[in-house]
Amino acid sequence: MRSVEEVQTTLQIAKLNPDEFYPVTQCLSFREHVSSGDFCLMELDETLCKYVETGKSLVIRGDKNEHAVLCSADETYELKIADTSNLLLFIPNGRTLDNLSEDLSGHKIIHSQVYGFSNCYWELRKCRPKLKKLKKLLLENQYEGLCIKEEHSSTKYTTSDLLQQIQASEEELLNQLQVLHACEINGYWSILELNYEMKLLSHITQLIDAESWSFCKIPLRICLQELGTLEPQEMIEHCLNCYGDRYIDADGDIFFALNEDKVCRAIAESLLQNAIKFNLSEFQEVWQQSVPEGMKTQLDQLKGLALIDHTSKPEAISLLKVEDLPEDTQERFNCLFGIREKWSEADIVPYIQDLCSEKQTGALLTKHARSSFQNGTKVYNSRRLMTS
């Protein structure tokens, strides 16, 4: 422990003027058995600091073969080690000028202990949640209706189970479950098998036609009464939630407005799922005949779901779902240019839109693709040499 006299002697030896310093000296000493592995330091921005200060938790998620991410309740952050040339000391009872309550008149000594040290810290960068594994897990336990025996079902996952395996915040996970049309049955999450989902949708649209209802005003209570004898009521309501917008009228009754684009898109997927390629004009004809009367099909409804080959004679269409493509940006572009050597902007944007904000697709294309003109149309090809 240094004394005031020893501190003053040290300043004299260093040829420093004591009058140029505050009259409080903080002397540091290392406690016994201090190691650089005792603590990990993490840099938090103001938002995360306030989040932690309110008593909320941050969770690190990732399997052994995955790069770890940090999750709050609604956001995901990439963890990256940042080295520093300065040694960082962990001093729990350390003092700064801002928290010195003592009178600064007269020289004083404050003794503080170093509990740990490090020359690196964890840096956080907000990133997209890694959700691709979610669908793979849910496909292990598809729901195909009550006729399927329970013993044939595979692994089941609760929300807690999924949070243990998926690198995403709880809010991002629940949002993606909604995107996948997953439903919670007896506490476990399942994806409806597509043919079964289309069966439910068909029951609903047939009832709408039989009752001459407007697509914008479908009464939930009557739907459950009429269709509850065919399928579980919770499945009927789930299907309405997937393909419609719920609202309550002035009398407090619940209604749904069917979303035309969602319905048409789902029927298109069911038509394309078993075909490698489909003649475009024939597909459009069959597609229009398959949707409920009064709804109109448009190719814009298939962005990120199906790919049109304008170079084939006749033009063809095939299933290509953006959710089935790699999550990593470079791998995504490699996959896309493996499917097609040159892409028009209109064709490729739906397959990279989820990698960035809407206004950043141009910058993303510039970084990962080369542009040229083909027959007066701007097209993009890989910056890398693609091998077969």
Structural overview:
- The chain is α+β, with helices and mostly antiparallel strands and 388 residues long.
- The protein contains 13 helices and 17 strands.
- The chain has a 4-stranded antiparallel sheet, covered by helices on one side. Strands 9-11-10 form a 3-stranded antiparallel sheet. A 3-stranded antiparallel sheet has the order 12-14-13.
- Helix 6 (194-211) crosses helix 8 (233-243) and helix 9 (260-272) packs across helix 10 (280-290).
- It is elongated.
- The relative contact order is 0.07.
Could you give the topology of this structure?
Elements: H1 4-13, E1 24-30, H2 46-53, E2 59-61, E3 69-71, E4 76-90, E5 108-114, E6 116-127, H3 132-138, H4 159-165, H5 170-179, E7 182-185, E8 188-191, H6 194-211, E9 218-219, H7 220-227, H8 233-243, E10 244-248, E11 254-258, H9 260-272, E12 278-279, H10 280-290, E13 306-309, E14 316-319, H11 329-339, E15 343-344, H12 345-348, H13 361-368, E16 369-374, E17 377-382
Parallel strand pairs: 1-5
Antiparallel strand pairs: 2-3, 3-4, 4-6, 7-8, 9-11, 10-11, 12-14, 13-14, 15-17, 16-17
Helix pairs in contact: 6-8, 6-9, 7-8, 9-10
